[in-house]
Amino acid sequence: MNNSLLNLKGTGVAVVTPFKPDLSVDYGSIKKIVNHLIDGGINYLVVQGTTGESSTLSDYEKDKSREKFLDAVHGRLPVVLGLGGNDTNNLVQKITNSNLNGFSAILSVTPFYNKPTQEGLFQHYVKISEYSELPIILYNVPGRTSCNLEPETTIRLANYSENIIGIKEANSEKLQIKKLIDNRPENFLIISGDDETAPETVLMGGDGVISVAANAIPHEFSKMITFSMDNKQKKAFDMLCDLKPLLRLLFEEGNPTGIKAAMHVLNLCENNLRLPLLPASKKLYSNIEKIISRI
Question: Which of 72, 168, 244, 279 has the highest count of CB atoms within 10 angstroms of its CB?
Fold first, then answer.
């Protein structure tokens, strides 16, 4: 198996972008966050995804924060870059014009808002895979995009291009995940995009998770995923039972609202988000604080 595929198994983390009180990017906190994640035993990072509030970052901020994340990681783990959009030609230009040195792969979300057909999705990913020097991980998150990448289309893409190496599947419907696992070509990665159902996906034959919660609890979350990958079902589900109250709180007011509150409790970054997102309510913050102290 390709080493890059092996390195993208286990627990990946969709890392937050920290902001100062004036809402400028807090580049100084990036190293603290990265060291916390690596010390917690995670396997790789994903920067500038949904959790990283990429839609609110300027091109300059994206470029500079990429550099800061890569500097902080310093080659210790693979780093995946979130790079997607709903204008295929514009996305191709971004991919071809970006400095991708240091990144292992691109995570590219399905086009949002314009609701393409399955054939449109297929052609979209074919085109970006042909122009990308890095392998592509598909990202299906219907709850955010109003667009579901059907398993048949995913498998068609996996068979069409060796440069499409996996999917982050955030449609947690069991039948969809089972179809992907049962029909994928050899070595095509099936990565959970849903924290609460990630152990079940891995136990079904999936390859890991790209997690939000692991920003705050990397040791606990990666241990749970390791149990799942080792087929230690009882231990994995016992841990999930312990973590489930926190997982539900983290998404109660949306993402990354909950996880930034948790990371502020842990003194990893300020509790600041850019509009239209807002910090957690006082009640949610207090509940997160209480449960983290118990974990």
Answer: 168
